[in-house]
Structures are given as structure tokens and as C-alpha cells.
Structure of Diaminopimelate decarboxylase:
Amino acid sequence: WPATAERIDGVVHLGGMDVRDLVAEHGSPLYLLDQADLAARARTFREAFAGADVYYAGKAFLSVGFARWVASEGLGLDVCSGGELGIALRADFPTDRIAMHGNNKSDAELRRAVAERVGCVVLDSYVEIVRLADIAAAAGIRQKVMIRTTVGVEAHTHEFIATAHEDQKFGFSLSSGGAAEAVRRVLALPSLELVGLHSHIGSQIFDTAGFEVAAKRVVQLLADIRAEHDVELTELDLGGGLGVAYTVDDDPAQLHRFAADLRTIVAYECGRHGLRLPRLVVEPGRALVGPAGITIYEVGTVKPVQLDAGAVRHFVSVDGGMSDNIRTALYDAAYTCVLASRGSDAEPMLARVVGKHCESGDIVVKDAWLPSDLEPGDLLAIAGTGAYCRSMASNYNQVPRPPVVSVGGGQSKVLLRRETEDDLLRLDAG
Ligand code: LLP
């Protein structure tokens, strides 16, 4: 739960505000972000990674107001599409602190990144090396770049969000020599300035062992580059991926511990090769914004269903679902959920919190213990929904996406307003 979350007589409060009042003002479902929690997290990242660059991964959640906040916290921004770049530009984000990612950036995206003087473009394919070099040359700009490497680590996380094993689409393979070849090609192009290497092994990772292997292999390439080209690259970007706790069973690494581990690993490996210590870059998304967010839903129906074994499962339908949180359906993600609008002494019942969409896989919380007197009109709060919920939300079944409201000091501020039926029809050519 976010830093300021508390329950007063069973009622959830966030940022000093009663969620019933927040729902009365902003409606349900509702994404809430705890300003104090975010500020504390940004501070912890800055402290833990002092001397390193922290680039917030905007894919976790981004809006103009949020990008402004990221800038004001002194963080950089990782964008992975023209749309995310556009939001950053609208927020007047300092472009030299933006890194542009993506395995298939379009010409238009690359042209815009170069023209806006984006600090770094992370290269992901041979085709892109030539594409970007031509665009930069035509613009008369020497573009700073990094090369994304695939380090061949099996990150212990869901298959869809593991990104460093060989058989996936991102980066240049280290083991097959692809990354070394990419370095050769980039160094031969005067319009590109190679500043460093990048590795992102996956997301929602608890064990730093994967980062250890990644750092070891990437630093080896730094040493190989020096041997072959007599060039010492100055930046090492180890990506994002630090896991957060979604349930009491989750035991993520503490941020300071994680940062200390990364530094030690990089320093040790560089020391072994006699390399100057590169500037370390990390790109946290989830760990910065995930735990700061909660979602509030209103219960619409409670349906007991008799299971074969004689047990009863209570399907609790809420007014949102897979359109505002696809993570349970997509990754089998687990969430923590409580009754948020009142206290209850009723016995707990085994519940499944489901959405209002026309799919049986439309599940928000697979197994939740909720009071057995739960009834329509009650509010539920789901923890840990700050990252990859609004940013992955859809309009499936023509359901408008909920607003994102940040709360702090007894006040609320809309970052993204609720969609309306007019919004849904705005693109409809009729
Ligand atoms: N850097 C790069 C290059 C990335 O691809 C990602 C995430 C990050 C940083 C940030 O990773 P984080 O610190 O948030 O783990 N939709 C999935 C997560 C996909 C992550 C994709 N890349 C989910 O909901 O779990």
C-alpha cells in the first residue's frame, strides 16, 4: 500500500482523503496516485543511485503532468514511442535527459528524436543503425547512441516480460557476436556517437543474480571494445526491472540494497578488466510508480458459485476490469484487495474480483478474501496499480478509461480525466 494509505474505521484514506469522497468527486473506477509516496520513492532512487542517472521508464505510466513531476525530481525519462516522446515534449521535458527506446522506431520517430535533440537513442537493429545515421547526417547532427545488447540471461519472471534470453526480439546478441558487429558499424558512422551499452533483462525481478550476469557480460564487451577499437565507452545502462510487492508473499530487494549490489557488480567487473568506471544508468518504471497507485472500484454484483469440491466461490463483479487492468489476464498477476468504504466484522469469504467485460478471463483479483457481507455499492481498493494499468488500458467493450487522480495533503488533482462517450466516438468516422 502507498505511504499515506490508512484505514480509519475500515475506510481507506489516501493522501489525507477519504476514498468515498474521492469517488463522489471523480467517479468510479478511479486510479489514485499518492504524491507523498511518489516523492519518497524518487528521493530513495536519487539517494540509492547517487552518481548514477535514473531514467524513469514512461511506459509504466505517463501524462503531461506526470512528466513535469519527473523532470522536477531531477530524473531522466525513457520513452519508447513517438507518443511517449510527444507527451514529454508537451511537458517541456529537458530533451537532453530523454532516452529513446524501441525495437522498431519509425523514420518519423527517429527524425523527431534527432530534431528535438534527444539525449540518447538506444539502437536495436542493424537496419536502424543505418536509418538513424542517415537521419542524423541529413540533420547535420551527431546523435548520441547506445547499443542494446541481449545478454542471454533467463530472468526469473513471466515469459512475456523477460527480455534477455536469446529467443526474443530485443537487442543485439552478445554470444553470437551481433553486439560486437553493431559496435563496429556504429563506430564507422560519423553521424553517430557511441556513448555506451544497454541491457534490460526483464521486469518484476526480485533476484539480482540476473543483473550480475548481465553486468558481467556487458562489461566484458566494454573490455572487448577497448581491445579492438581502443575506445572506452563511458555509459552503462542496466535497464529497469526491479520488482515490487503485489502481495504479502512477494519479497522484492530493497532499493538501497539493489543499488548497492548493482554498483558492486559493475565496479568489480570493471576492476577485473582495468576499465574506468562507466556512468551507471538505470531505468525503473514499475518500482517508481507501481506501489504509489491504487484502483478503486464499486461492487455491482456478488454471485456465489458452487464448485465441484463443495466449496463456494463468490464472484464479485466491479465496474471496471480487464480494460483498466489487463495484468491479471495477461500475466496471471496477483493483487491485494480490501473493502475500502466501510468496516466489517463479517467472516471472510473466498472471492474472485471480476470485471464487467464479456470474457470469463476478465479477472482483476483471482483469489481475494473479502468480508461475506459484501454488497453492491461497496468500494474495493486494489493495491499496486500505479504501473502498467492505465498505460495498458483499452476501450474494450467500449468502456471509457478511468481518470488518474493524484492525492496529497488532503487535496486531489486530475492528471488524466475520465473518458466520455464523446471521447469514444471522437475517432468514429460515422
Ligand atoms: N527499460 C526498458 C528498455 C524496458 O523495456 C522496460 C520495461 C523498463 C526499462 C522498465 O521496466 P520496469 O522497471 O518497469 O520493470 N507490461 C509489463 C511490464 C513490461 C515491461 C517492459 N519494459 C507488466 O505489466 O508487468
Notes: The longest strand covers residues 293-306.
